[in-house]
Amino acid sequence: MSRIIAGAAGGIPLFSVPGTATRPTTDRVKEALFSRLDAYEVITDAKVLDLYAGSGSLGVESASRGAKIVDLVESGDKAAAVSRTNADLVNKTLKTQTVRVHHLKVETYLDRAVPEDQWDLVLMDPPYSVENDTLTGLLETLVPHLAEGAVIVLERSSRSQEPEWPSGLERFAEKKYGETKLWFAEPSAAAL
Prior knowledge:
Blueprint: H1 27-40, E1 47-51, H2 57-64, E2 69-73, H3 77-94, E3 99-102, H4 106-111, E4 119-124, H5 132-142, E5 146-157, E6 169-177, E7 180-187
Parallel strand pairs: 1-2, 1-4, 2-3, 4-5
Antiparallel strand pairs: 5-7, 6-7
Helix pairs in contact: 2-3
């Protein structure tokens, strides 16, 4: 069972999505990821977008650590229901409505984004079956919606090829944790 690692809701156990359709981020990877994000000072008061949210564990971890708004986007029925349960747990603990769940396809959610939608942190943990061309298209859609100093974290299999970063984004770091690889990107100077 996963849990919230740190922050105001630290220690709360989280519900997992039943079955094998989702691939939860391990606590080890989550702890390393958030340690890095804390060092980047990108979480406090951030607007966070968690795409392919699964159980929502990354997004609710952000809320526990001080994010202002967290949007979880998940299209799977079971996963969206678990995301909603975990969001309700964290919102109740924080006594806020910080975490919101959107039961939609990622593409649909991003197509509906308005220019005022600006995110400080975007977490992407797509199914391995999502092709890199699709990811590049989604990343391109995100570029005009990134706040200055924003960070995108893309989680993939360590055997996956690095995606092609669209114009407006630059990869600035990568880290491998066993079977998991994280890529970190930010808006390029030309995109701001």
